[in-house]
Design goal:
Number of strands: 15
Oligomer: single chain
Distance between the termini: 11 Å
Radius of gyration: 20 Å
Shape: globular
């Protein structure tokens, strides 16, 4: 099969790899129909995720068709159309029993495209198929469904839920790439009073308006902290969501939040960020971090199926699976190309 393979920071190739095989009785082999590229993949290529080693097939988001299943698999069978989640769950360990599938101790968690070969290929082996694959209704097409593999549950759980967004809240989202735009959609489900989008790229701020932000701020031309305080009677935002993953944006978030507010970090950080406790220690601020657990995937799938969550809105560019290298170039040059999410289809 063909696959996108990581060969160290800044190096990737679309190359021939052996077809995956069933290893455990709980495995499934899935033929990839539709796949996308995540910002986390770009962090890997920058060298921010040291656990990803030379030779790893990247990718952790896909929709596909089950080709084969192990003897212990009971909930999916060959021919089923499924969502391949970014998080794999053994379903038995302490954390899985608590719904914290991202922290799975039984061999799951975020492993696809990280600790084992991932989805940016013609086929993928999915461990713990019964608890890691989701049957898809015919009413949800591939492009909408693939957004449920990572960005929608991540922004909902790690952003809106961890941040405790509530009706009437002022929410500031710092970074309006795909995960930030997804956070805006997730927050809108809780009827906030205002959603403020903060980004350096005007094209992304325009996209944020389309996704539901009612106020946009470019820190290159405006003082974001002063603007947010002016909008909140000098207090700061109730909830601030970090959706970039660099020290400057995390530190900005802690300056934007009001006393007693919440900072929800979604961004993938590859270098240390300063935690200014000399300013924060007496402000009753809650800072949360998290890897998505995907407990919300069935709920969000119902919202997409009913038309209440416009997942299609993310897709800006289409490619054939064999154009993986071109798709990466387009996605990593989003400031120039306007890419939000690129989707690749396997035309076979």
């Amino acid at each position: 099969m063909k696959a996108l393979v990581y060969h160290g920071p800044g190096r990737r190739s679309w190359e021939e790899r052996p077809d995956p095989q069933l290893v455990d009785a709980t495995d499934a082999i899935v033929d990839i129909d539709t796949v996308t590229i995540c910002g986390t993949d770009l962090h890997i290529l920058k060298g921010d995720v040291a656990a990803v080693t030379d030779g790893r097939v990247l990718g952790h988001e896909a929709v596909g068709t089950v080709r084969a299943v192990g003897a212990a698999v009971t909930t999916v069978r060959p021919g089923d159309r499924v969502l391949v989640s970014c998080v794999t769950a053994c379903g038995r360990c302490r954390f899985c029993r608590e719904g914290m599938y991202g922290q799975c101790l039984g061999g799951g968690g975020w492993i696809l495209g990280h600790l084992i070969d991932g989805t940016q290929a013609e086929q993928v082996r999915v461990p713990f198929a019964d608890t890691s694959l989701y049957l898809l209704p015919a009413s949800v097409d591939d492009e909408a469904a693939v957004m449920l593999a990572d960005i929608l549950p991540t922004s909902y759980e790690v952003g809106a839920i961890n941040g405790r967004v509530g009706p009437g809240d002022t929410v500031a989202v710092v970074g309006t790439g795909p995960i930030g735009l997804s956070a805006i959609l997730g927050c809108k489900l809780f009827s906030p009073g205002h959603v403020i989008a903060i980004d350096l790229a005007e094209s992304r701020l325009e996209a944020a308006k389309q996704f539901g932000a009612d106020i946009t701020i470019n820190p290159a031309t405006h003082d974001a902290v002063a603007e947010v305080r002016a909008l909140t009677e000098g207090l700061g935002a109730d909830v601030v969501i970090e959706a970039v993953g660099v020290p400057e944006t995390f530190e900005l978030c802690t300056s934007l939040v009001r006393r007693g507010g919440h900072v929800a970090n979604i961004g993938v950080h590859g270098v240390p960020a300063a935690l200014h406790l000399e300013d924060l220690w007496d402000r009753n601020v809650t800072i949360t971090t998290g890897l998505v657990d995907t407990w919300s995937t069935p709920r969000l799938l119902r919202l997409v199926a009913s038309g209440q969550l416009p997942a299609h809105r993310f897709v800006t560019h289409h490619f054939d699976l064999g154009q993986m290298m071109d798709a990466y170039t387009t996605f990593e040059s989003a400031a120039d190309t306007g890419a939000i999410k690129v989707v690749l289809h396997n035309s076979r």
